[in-house]
Amino acid sequence: MESKLNVLFLGKLPEEAWTARHRPPMEVLLSEAVLRRELMVHFQPQYEVNCGQGSGVEALARWTLADGLEISPMVFIPFAEGTGRICALGAWVLEHACATVGAWGDFDGHAPSLSVNVSTHQINEEFCDVVKRILERTGFAGERLELEITESALIANAELAIRCCERWRELGVHIAVDDFGTGYSSLSYLSRLPVDRLKLDKSFVHRMIAEKKTAAIVRSVLALGKDLGVAVLVEGIETEAQFAMLEQMGCEQVQGFLLAKPVPANEARALLLMPWGARFAPVFRPERVLDRGLHAA
User: Fold this and answer.
1) Mean pLDDT lowest for which of 43-52, 66-75, 113-122, 284-293?
2) Is residue 30 part of a domain?
3) Which residue has the higher pLDDT, 153 or 263?
4) Is residue 64 within 8 Å of 12, Cβ to Cβ?
5) Cα separation of 30 and 275, whole Å?
6) Does residue 32 belong to any structural domain of this protein?
């Protein structure tokens, strides 16, 4: 029996291994993936450190073929970018995510936010119109939507990125800089770009306990956010030690496998209703959360 490949292995397979499975070219499969209902959007919850309450979710595309083979986003996203299909894929993810999260309603008067990644190829005037139409069709409030742009996208064409961000802001949409700290760019864009949040790249989190210099960088980014009046979310948290260090540093927003993995919509909604999602360990000091009127699930 053909074994299910690890999601990361597919990107390393030689072409003959792919064709040996008697599959059509990946471009054909990707073009039909939506119709075949192979594409899904999973959601990873984000949390407020001071109370443990879920504040929103990040939408992440997932692709599973009919025979159960999972294709990693690290494979099909670059492929979609290289073949010009990323704009259609991105628009589908955005509309599906807005419709899904919009249907969740409010959680005790709090409406969760939605973060969606934007490819470099989507930073153009046409995609600005796409965002506007999707918000109109789904009825999703622009103020609840956050579009994430990487530093590399800003470097590629700063002037165009600024114009697009300004148009998105006119719709009420928030702007986040994803993978912050990995672009090796000048920080001057932070004074020009209407940024609402910085998402510190997970590579810093994974190294900060063992490396004092990396820990100093994390502290500096958290301080920078406060000085600029920009929120900072730290992603990629996988251990209690990492969380404890970030809490000590004054980190206010977190995301990572320790708290919740990307999951289907119904599971993500349930996780948002529970303090700290799937994990409620002593390191989070339950008494602090209970004092704020929340209850451990």
Assistant:
1) 284-293
2) no
3) 263
4) no
5) 37
6) no
Q: Kindly give the pairing relationship between strand 231-235 and strand 253-255.
A: parallel
Q: What share of the chain is helix, strand, coil (3-state, %, to 5)?
A: 45, 20, 35
What is the pTM for the complete model shown?
Answer: 0.84
Give me the residues paired with residue 176 across strands: 148, 197
The percent of residues in the chain predicted with pLDDT above 90, rounded, is 53
**How many structural domains does the chain have?**
1
Q: Is the pLDDT of residue 68 over 90?
A: no
With b for 16 or more beta-carbon neighbours within 10 A and e for fewer, the 26-42 pattern comes to beebbbebeeeebbebb
Contacts of 117 (CB under 8 A, 6+ apart): 58, 59, 60, 90, 148, 178
pLDDT at 140: 97
How far apart are alpha carbons 155 and 122 in whole angstroms?
A: 14
Cβ proximity of 111 and 140 under 8 Å: no
Looking at the DSSP assignment, which residues form a beta bridge with residue 54?
Answer: 47
- Inter-CA distances, 68 with 15, 63, 93, Å: 20, 10, 21
262-273: pLDDT as tens digits: 999 999 999 988
Q: Which domain range does residue 234 map to?
A: 38-291
Q: What is the mean pLDDT of the chain?
A: 83
Answer whether residue 155 is part of any domain: yes
CATH number at residue 271: 3.20.20.450
Does 164 map to a domain? Answer: yes
